[in-house]
Amino acid sequence: MKKKTCESCLMPLSKDTGVGESDKYCSFCFRDGKLVYEGNDVNEFKKRAHEGMIKKGMNPLLAKFYTWMIGFAPRWNNKHE
Ligand SMILES: [Zn+2]
């Protein structure tokens, strides 16, 4: 069984409540035909994602955990080398 997750933030695409425009990215990362954050700084991306989660009212501990998970997403894999 293979679960599809966003390649940018690892959110399970089945949990994506927005319009899934891409089969690689969630609606938070990919909108209007392009990546919302086009840079390649994972820390900057994490900061934005974290702020977004807090704004949505997510539990701060969960938000911290999901933000940490972002570092393992395929999009940022080359940053670990
Ligand atoms: Zn995403």
Give descriptors for this structure.
81 residues, mainly alpha, two-stranded antiparallel ribbon, 2 helices, 5% strand, binds zinc ion
User: Which segments are poorly predicted (pLDDT under 50) over 5 or more consecutive residues?
Assistant: none
Structural class comes to mainly alpha
Averaged pLDDT, please? 91
Q: What is Rg?
A: 12 Å
How many beta-strand elements?
A: 2
> What's the tally of helices?
2
- The helix content is 25-40%
Order of the strands making up the biggest sheet: 1-2
Could you explain the architecture of this structure?
With 81 residues, this protein is mostly helical. The model has no long low-confidence stretch (mean pLDDT 91). It contains two helices and two strands; from the N terminus they run ββαα. It has helices spanning 42-55, 60-70; strands at 30-31, 34-35. It has one domain. Strands 1-2 form a two-stranded antiparallel ribbon.
